[in-house]
Amino acid sequence: MGIATSGLTTTKAPFIEQAKAEGDIYIRQPYELYSEDNQEAWRRLYARILPRWHKYAHPKFLEGVESLALDPHNVPRLDDINKFLQPLSGFSARAVSGYVPAFIFFDCLRNRAFPTTITIRDGAKLDYLPEPDIFHDVAGHVPMHTDRVFADVLVRFGEVARTAARMVQEISDSEERLRRLDSILKAMARFFWFTIEFGLMRNGDGLRVYGSGLLSSYGELEYCIESPEVQRFPFQLEWVVNQYFEIHHYQPLLFIVDSFEHLFAQVDQLEHWMLEGKLDNVSPGEPNANEQDLRSFLEANLEEQDPPG
User: Fold this and answer.
1) Superfamily designation of domain 2-298
2) 3 state SS of 3
3) CB distance 182 to 170 below 8 Å
């Protein structure tokens, strides 16, 4: 009964805590557990950000919102989302219990599955997000996945992660293997952060937002375009992989790509640099790979197999 009355509020959901305790990464979306407070939080989040999407979001994102038929009034059912999403790009949103180790996350992308959080932030703290929630994942990420070229960028990034795992597993010296993996993961995390999460793109009438961290933040969505305090530079791979970031405040530095084709080409370049050893000694600082992330690459099964069902 406790589970039924506690809803699916981020950090306060017994259903999620039980799944984590049992070691379950992939779970069902227990829609019956969403409380009225959870539904109201979704309604408020959606209603207040919608005008800013129309003003600042990339047109492909707005097309995605329409294609997915996102409901402004109710937390989305992932099964409904996937009925619209899969025919467009082959992607699906897949419910997870929370944190997914890095290699597993990226390999999901390679298999056109997006690990999706199912909890929603506390309605009393709409601007405070202790960890990703369903609004960030579904309203911030998933509309972009309806675009085939952008979806292919994610798949390509998953392939780069596989290349990284193969490379480091072939290094015989354990200390050198860890050192190089830590540097490569730092570079990959920075790339993902400054593109998929916080990317800007040139558009016919100025800059538009395609990064999900910005698209799911009511305050930062306007700030990233309008504030004179934000530094905005053309995307340069050598800058991106050496630029640390901090997650607990608005971003002071953002990078601009020209198109999704340009972004895809940069992922290709990232892999080339990795193979050439150019990611083996990137600048120190955030983010720091945790033990689970490192282990997920070192223990990755690189035999081709069917993606998890």
Assistant:
1) Aromatic amino acid hydroxylase (1.10.800.10)
2) helix
3) no
DSSP 68-122: HT--SSSPPPHHHHHHHHHHHHS-EEEEESS---HHHHHHHHHTTEEEEE--B--
Strands 113-117 and 92-96: parallel
Distance CA 11, CA 302 (A): 33
Contact at 8 Å (CB) between 8 and 16?
yes
* DSSP H helices in 141-217: 148-169, 174-192, 212-215
β pairing state of 253-257 and 200-203: parallel
The torsion defined by the Cα of 17, 80, 50 and 155, in degrees rounded to 10, comes to 80
Q: How does pLDDT run across 60-116, given as a tens digit for each residue?
A: 999 999 999 999 999 999 999 999 999 999 999 999 999 999 999 999 999 999 999
Q: Which residues contact 33 (CB under 8 A, 6 or more apart)?
A: 3, 4, 6, 7, 8, 13, 15
Domain boundaries, the chain: 2-298
